[in-house]
Amino acid sequence: MSLVVQVRDLTKTYPDLSVGTRVAVDHISFSVAAGEIFGVLGPNGAGKTTTLRMLSTILRPTSGTIIINNANIDTDPHLIRKSIGFVSNNTAVYDRMSARELVEYFGRMHEMSRDLLRARIEIVFKKLCMDDMGNVPCGRMSTGMKQKVSIARALIHDPPVLIFDEASVGLDVMVTRSLLQTISALRDEGKCIIFSTHIMREVEKLCDRVAMMHRGRILDIGTLDELAEKYQQNDFEDLFFSLLTQDEQSQDAGRIHSSSHHIAGEGVPF
Amino acid sequence: MKWSRVMLIFTREMRDQVRDRRTMFTIFVLPMLLYPFMGMLMLQVAQFNAEYPVAVTWIGQENWPSESPLVIDDEQHRRSNELIHWTRHEPSSLTEDAQVVAENLVRNGATDFVLVTKPGLKAWLSQSTSKLDDNVTSSTDVPTDQFSATDKSIVPILTVVNQASDASLVAAKRVGTLIEDWRSAWLRKQLSDANLNPSIVDIVAIQRVDVAPAETKQALVWSKILPLIMLVWALTGAFYPAIDLCAGEKERGTLETLLCSPASRTEIVWGKLLTVICFSIATAVLNLFSMQFTSSFVMQQFALLGGPESVQALGPLPLSSLTWLIVILLPISAMFSALALAVAALARSSKEAQYYLMPLLLAGLPLVMLPMLPGISLGTGTATIPVTGAVLLARALIEGHLAEAFLYSPIVIGVTAICCLLAIRWAVRQFENESVLFRESERFELRAWLQNMFQHRTPTATAGEAMLCGSIILVALFFGRMSLASTELSWDSMTHSTIVIQIGMILAPCLIMATVLTSSVWKSLRLGRPRLADMLFCFGLGVSLHPAYMVLSSAIQYEFQFGSDTKEVLLYIDTMISAAPLWSVILTLAVVPAICEELAFRGFIFAGLLQQRGTLRAIIVSALFFGLSHGVLQQTIGATLMGLILGVVAWRTGGVLGCIVLHMTHNTLTMIVARAGKQTQLIPHFFEWAVVRTTDGGVAYSNLWTILSIVIATSILAALMWNNRPEHRADLLREGSLT
């Protein structure tokens, strides 16, 4: 399988009033192939959204490399934007536009011809069962319907890479199930999918491989079977929590070690 | 940048805004309703003010001469009598206490106004009459002041009013008119009784001839009101769409999807900017038409009803004037829109954006209001003030002063275009700035912040710290100059105050901040190792720029003339400086300011502003701080322009020392030229051809040298830029100075 997304040593830091510089993403590396769903699992504040925002060119990496569909983010961000479809957790639709207008707007942004755009809208709306909601203003839609419009917007230009950032947040069970089915179908079409979540079940159900993130770092990457074998944990939730606990303990120990070292240094008489 | 994409974004934003009922109401419906409602309200208020009766108390009515009553009870005066409800008041003890009683009555609100006629009134009147008779019969010269003295000492009529009450003021006006009418009638009667012609009172009648055409008079009134109204609405009209298009998109989460679309940040900003401009213009134009239409209609109705002549003259504004107004509106709207967009981008929510935009409105209003001040007219100086110049140009065009308008229009257009481009650039930078677009709410903790400030200090200040330093210096200078202003002006006191100001108020804040807030005082003040070539270039630049600066300074002083008092003080200071030893003058006014001001403005502040690719920001803002630190407007303008050149030098040389050399050379030359008229030995023999004697005994640069020096200065600046081009200064590129 060809690698569509390649991430090497990706780091993102922010200036912070309290601590000076806050490291949101800390030297992470991974790659994703076509026809694969790559899960990014982590608790809130793990750096998932920042990572995906960097992949979708919304944020500039502080350091590291991102190559998507053979385009480097530093030199060709516009090519990357053409290759990706980004769906965020807040549905993000224009309330005063209808579903068709909104999808058409983003299609035209991708410089699609009118005929191609019309044909793609038909296909995408059919695929997402949206035929009856084309003229409904987004402001009058339910959260689930809005998320469908959001996915349609991301799919309209038929990108090889799709990025879902906690896309199931706020959706009811039925809509979530439908969303996961849609994503699964997109994988079957050969799309490269990066799917971030903090819900274990979604990872277990959907992802081919998963990266577990905590405090900006990737703790481990692998298929579910590989991880279960490596950590001798059959229950994925238990596996995830044991990794988090280990990481927290090692970081705390590091802090205590460095501070005690610092105190010992001060106490040396010479 | 693809314009097709800009237009796509623009069309969407326009459609989105048109579908927003709140925006449509503010921009289209409100102007249609506002002015008719305001007109209705004003008419009613005016009617109320004019018509309601007032209560007036009269103390000592019996002292008024019965043969010549104040209130005439006939049909002609019926209406005015109805509007004053008279009450007669008789205090228990009269005369001395009458004033106290009257004051209490008005103060307690028992009446609106009190008229007190004292017992001496009749005697005063008869005395005046007899004097008139004596003068007429004897025909001798009686000194007029004798009559006046008697007149003033008696004061037979007293009125008590409450200036804080509208009703009391209306009553005072009405009673005042009655007394004036009575006084005129009484005087005419006395003159008639003394066999004199009563029309002697109006003997010098003045006939006024007005040559202004009716259209010009109309334009004069409108030219003062309409630009103001138009620009205030242009600013207001830019606000709401800017908030919705920036902060609103952030709130809805749609900005993220737009940012990862193929549209570049510049395309997004232009698309949004065009939308805001459209709404800003639409709001201003609709308000303009609505106000003009409503007021013209009201005035025409007044004219039909026989209203005052001044009101009748206020017809509709000619179409040509309206066209000029709209032409002026376009660039100003673009500027306001870009500013509103940039400021709104800072906010996380619509509510927060309103907090940020209010200061922008407050900062913009003085520029719009400035042309309303008496004596402010279009000139080279006023044309250079952003917004104000455009308002004055609009006024000149409306009033038909086309020659004047076209003369100054290049300056106004130039200044407005520069401001507009800077505002647009700022807006684009805001959209490129992640910390602006994805700012999360940070809970500010003073302790953590202070701890971080000390633990994670950077070699140079941040942009915020630089701005804070500049502001501290300006505030310190404002209070410092006032407190150090000495009534006794001597060279000693001037030296003392200059050194205190330079070291205590300019150098000290930046030194303290450099020590406390940065990890390297050396780097934060940009005290890098100087290059000999740069120092020589800067010295040459200081010498060759001086003649051009002197010409500029004279032009500024011609345009913004000093008042006579200021001129006297400046002349006195010049004499004082000329009398002081040259070494002392150079040390105090050239060496100390060059070191202190450059370390502050091109050192600490410049280094801070240079962060995050802020080269242009560093040059402009440090020049503005430098200019504003000079207390006098004329100096501020010159210093700001000089600050721009110093900023370019600081940028390309990568340090402050070159600027110190340039500044010191410039100030030293100013001191030498000022005294070279009397001390000719100060002019080197080989340089005598370059100076000429002025009529006041001083010296000035010859025209030949001035032109030559400008060419030389340009060449030196070009050489300095070339010598320090980025590929030659890898060291500075690392520091971020050459970006």
Give the gist of this structure.
The complex is a heterodimer of chains A (270) and B (739). With 270 residues, chain A is of the alpha/beta class.
What does this structure look like?
The complex is a heterodimer of chains A (270) and B (739). Chain A has 270 residues and is an alpha/beta fold. Chain A has a single domain (3-222), classed as Rossmann fold. Chain A has nine helices and ten strands. Chain A has a six-stranded mixed β-sheet with strand order 6-7-8-3-9-10, with helices on both faces. In chain A, strands 2-1-4-5 form a four-stranded antiparallel β-sheet, with helices on one face. In chain A, strand 4 and strand 5 (71-72) form a beta hairpin. In chain A, helix 3 crosses helix 4 and helix 3 (99-109) packs parallel to helix 5. The longest helix of chain A has 32 residues, at 236-267. Mean pLDDT of chain A is 84; it is low at 256-270. In chain B, helix 3 links the parallel strand 1 and strand 2 (84-89). The radius of gyration of chain B is 35 Å and the shape is globular. Chain B folds into three domains: 3-45 and 211-437, no CATH class; 52-202, D-Maltodextrin-Binding Protein, domain 2; 526-735, no CATH class. Chain B starts with a helix and ends with a helix. In chain B, helix 12 (319-346) crosses helix 13. In chain B, 34% of the residues are buried. Chain B is mainly alpha-helical. In chain B, the strands form two sheets. Chain B has a four-stranded mixed β-sheet with strand order 2-1-3-4, sandwiched between helices.
Major β-sheet strand ordering of chain A:
6-7-8-3-9-10
Described by its quaternary structure, the protein is heterodimer
Q: Strand order across the biggest sheet of chain B?
A: 2-1-3-4
Number of extended strands of chain A: 10
Mean pLDDT over the full residue set of chain B? 82
- Poorly predicted runs of chain B are 139-150, 733-739
Class by alpha and beta content of chain B? mainly alpha
- Biggest pleated sheet of chain B: 4 strands, mixed
The CATH C-level class name of chain A:
Alpha Beta
- Indicate the percent of residues in helices of chain A: 40-55%
Principal-axes geometry of chain A comes out as globular
Q: Approximately how much helix is present in the residues of chain B?
A: over 70%
Low-confidence stretches of chain A: 256-270
Largest sheet of chain A: 6 strands, mixed
Strand content of chain B: under 5%
